[in-house]
Amino acid sequence: MTNLSDTAQQLVAHGKGILAADESFSTADKRLREYGIEPSEEMRRKFRDMLLATPGIDTYLSGVILYEETLEQNADNGIPFATLLANEHVLPGIKVDQGLDEFPDSPGESITKGLLGLPERLQEYRDTYGARFTKWRAAIRIEGDRLPTSAMLVENAKRLASYAYEVQKAGMVPMVEPEVLLEGAHSRLRAREVVETTLHVLFDALAEQNVDLSGILLKTSMVLSGSKSGRTDTSEEVAEDTLAVLLASVPKEVPGIVFLSGGQGPDQATDNLRAITARAKEVQAPWILTFSYARALQEEALAVWKGKDEYEDAAREVFIGRLKKVQAALA
Ligand code: 13P
After folding, report:
1. Considering 95, 135, 158, 219, which one is annotated as catalytic?
2. pLDDT tens across the length of the chain (331 residues)
3. Kind of pairing, strands 288-291 and 17-21?
4. How many distinct structural domains can be found in the chain?
């Protein structure tokens, strides 16, 4: 077994999951504003401190994905965030893509950027900050039968594969995330078709780049009806379609698959995860499945915290409460 596959397995094993706390400047600021908090560099730091310095998170979390700014910041106790996590045996990870550009061949679609200078950045994340894994996210929009285009899927998959190759070369585990967006009026059937095609194209590209599948993690969307479809799927429907797609497209060498919450509420994301992991057990799926949520883990804590020191303890209690529920949803 390689070191990379050890790390990948460590990230999904023992009934733990991964917190995504890697919102870019603009997304983090948007989240803070949603809860009436005036954003600033210091507020983003306090936001991360509220989550990451919560005592006992290591019971639930094997890793946390950070944004570059957070790697360079210290917790309230003066310890750099990445060290704070490592001291608790929570592996620090880092989002390494540099966001989305418009895809020139198809307006309305996006392409993820960040390959330029990536090897140098990876070395620094690993050597200076002790990052053990990384994330790269592509965003795939469904619009009727028109989107996604295959040109966009192929180009995003190629970049995900180039990224994964570079990250493994640098001795870290790449999390590959082709997020099929929940936004839209599409049916669950259409989402199922798009997730399956997306994953096929992705694994073709990973094979072409000779990426070692035993040393990656797949981060994927669940198969859900679009947020504007007017339909709420049952957890059983989500689980059945999600497992069908994964079994049809993800090689068994991949050690773990982690789910994003994608705009589902905390309870919905928890209930769907419970049904998915139960279904995976039923069909004897070859990979370990767990969560890698941002919003579904953070929302309730942010609503209590409101950016105020006096509410920090209460917010942390709510954060742990949600982590407990999500962990209990793992089969
Ligand atoms: P959400 O759980 O809020 O979808 O975020 C997870 C993530 O990392 C998206 O890239």
Report:
1. 219
2. 359 999 999 999 999 999 999 999 999 999 999 999 999 999 999 999 999 999 999 999 999 999 999 999 999 999 999 999 999 999 999 999 999 999 998 989 999 999 999 999 999 999 999 999 999 999 999 999 999 999 999 999 999 999 999 999 999 999 999 999 999 999 999 999 999 999 999 999 999 999 999 999 999 999 999 999 999 999 999 999 999 999 999 999 999 999 999 999 999 999 999 999 999 999 999 999 999 999 999 999 999 999 999 999 999 999 999 999 999 999 8
3. unpaired
4. 1
**What is the span of the domain harbouring residue 257?**
4-329
What tokens does 287 get? 């990979």
CA of 33 to the centre of ligand 1 (A): 18
Tell me if residue 237 is catalytic: no
Distance 293 CA to ligand 1 centre (A): 5
List the CATH number of the domain containing 294.
3.20.20.70
Atom of ligand 1 nearest to the CA of 269: 2
How close are the terminal C-alpha atoms of the chain, in Å? 25
| CA pair distance 311, 307, nearest whole angstrom | 8
Q: Is 219 a catalytic residue?
A: yes
Strand partners, 136: 176
Q: What is this structure's pTM?
A: 0.98
